[in-house]
Design goal:
Blueprint (H helix, E strand, L loop, with lengths): L2 E5 L5 E6 L2 H4 L5 H15 L58 H17 L3 E4 L9 H11 L4 E4 L5 H7 L5 E4 L6 H5 L3 E5 H11 L4
Parallel strand pairs: 1-3, 3-6, 4-5, 4-6
Antiparallel strand pairs: 1-2
Helix pairs in contact: 4-5
């Protein structure tokens, strides 16, 4: 069972916390992480690309010129794909790019991402963040003391004051245990868990949760 030190917002050690091995010490399989990240990114695609096929275009009913005698190549339609401004053959049409990944696989990938963060020393636990006011400068001071650069900060619950004070700081992302995703964990250099958020993550991802 892994044991991590807990720090306060002044970056001073205040205690220790034990992490559940079934959540934070899972063997990492890159193919599982890749599958889940690909599924998440695919679900973000709008899929609104569209081109006009021959059936969608007006015109094309009359032959542009007679078959022989003009010196030009034969042409049977003014909307031929060979012509400028003509139809597009087999062009992209609106579609849904998302695909299903089983819930058990998604949860397994989250446990793997958390385990990888622990193994790579990207994971830290802090007790809490309390600001005198919801201002960017106050959060920036805390981020500087904690050494946060490109960090994912997991709160036990939504906190409007922290969200407002951190949204203008580049590289800082806030979420709750319910909104935690594999892509966000892997896309940040640091994973910062609030002490109370650890319990929420463990309950969500434990085998019996």
């Amino acid at each position: 069972m892994a044991v991590l030190k807990i720090y306060d917002q002044e970056n001073r050690e205040t205690g220790e916390i034990s992490l559940s091995p079934e959540v934070f010490e899972v063997p990492v399989r890159p193919e599982i992480l890749h599958l889940v990240v690909r599924a998440q990114r695919a679900s973000w695609r709008s899929g609104t690309h569209s081109t006009l096929s021959r059936s969608m275009m007006k015109g094309g009913g009359a032959k542009p010129w007679r078959q022989k005698g003009t010196g030009r190549a034969r042409a049977g339609s003014g909307i031929s794909p060979l012509w400028r401004g003509g139809a597009v053959l087999f062009g992209p049409q609106p579609r849904d790019y998302s695909f299903k990944v089983n819930k058990k696989v998604r949860r397994l990938a989250l446990r793997m991402a958390l385990s990888a963060s622990l193994t790579d020393n990207k994971l830290r636990v802090i007790k809490n963040i309390e600001l005198p006011a919801a201002k960017t400068k106050h959060f920036a001071e805390v981020a500087g003391k904690l050494g946060l650069t490109k960090a994912l900060l997991v709160l036990p619950q939504a906190d409007e004051a922290l969200e407002r004070s951190s949204r203008n700081i580049q590289g800082i992302t806030l979420c709750t245990p319910e909104g935690l995703s594999v892509y966000d964990i892997l896309n940040h250099r640091q994973l910062i868990l609030m002490e109370q958020a650890v319990e929420g993550i463990t309950c969500r991802l434990s085998q019996g949760g």
